[in-house]
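Raw record, unedited: dTDP-4-dehydrorhamnose reductase
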Amino acid sequence: MHVLITGAHGQLGSEIQRCVERGRSEIGPISDAWKVALIDYAGSADLDVSSIRSVDSWFESHDPYDVVINCAAMTNVDGCEKDFSRAFATNALGPMNLAIATERQGAKLVHVSTDYVFSGEESGARLESDVPCPISAYGRSKLAGEGLATSRNPRTFVVRTAWLYGLEGKNFVKTMLRLAQAHSRVTVVDDQVGNPTSASDLAHELLALSLTDAFGTFHATCEGTCSWADFAQAIFEEFGIECTVERCSSAEYLAAHPESAERPRFSALDSSSLYAVVPERMRTWRTALFSYRDSYKSHFGGNHA
Ligand SMILES: NC(=O)c1ccc[n+]([C@@H]2O[C@H](COP(=O)([O-])OP(=O)(O)OC[C@H]3O[C@@H](n4cnc5c(N)ncnc54)[C@H](OP(=O)(O)O)[C@@H]3O)[C@@H](O)[C@H]2O)c1
């Protein structure tokens, strides 16, 4: 099996590499098929997914692929608002370019998307059949990417995840740990609810799903929901840090940070249809956070990332 991971140095791409090298995620062992897979890990400097030339030249200079897992994205939600053309190029044209290249080779494309394709106005966890209605430039660019990928390669999996954190790269957990080093209290939004999701759990599901032919759209998040403020509180509890979480509303946060993008109020995803294909379930967000603390401490030692 010849596999390409794009955006390989981001938090998800790095976690996939870690899982493959160890033969397991934090959920458990991954399939033995990955032990014998030949995997190319391409960072943004090696392969710019937004450029059809870069994608074509990469595919022309490598043996045909069986699976491509697209972890490349512009994930800076506020940055996407300011530079929609770059967001669209990366998050929409990128998956389209990969879909065209993989379709030519009969390869599968695993494309990762987001809960931010939903408006967050509805109550109840969103199903794959629910109609998306993004309220941010990031969400619009990602939704366009889903459609462009699936329309160009019928052998595409779109996997929507949420509130992702891993060991490499930037994420909310690391931001809270960093802020707590300098401040005794942090102000965090309490009226946006979602599913904090471990990159290790998501990597496990992607590696398993990509061995199947169950093409289509899936939701894949850790189980359970909380607000950002609850998440911050849990991070400080798990890491044994004394830092007070001051809860604020989205309106208060927007007033203090007028340049920031609007985010969905309730963007929880229902991942149950994934488990008809991949039996190993993702953990609860709190269980995953507990084991992330151990992974974080053994990865970074006593230092913060
Ligand atoms: N992070 C979240 O909370 C979250 C939530 C829901 C869904 N997702 C989705 O999950 C996926 C993985 O996210 P992540 O958190 O791992 O993101 P990440 O840490 O920001 O990594 C994204 C990677 O993509 C690379 N990249 C950016 N533009 C590129 C381009 N034009 N060509 C090739 N590579 C490019 C980046 O490289 P450079 O750093 O060199 O630019 C980076 O290494 C994305 O599809 C994202 O939309 C993430």
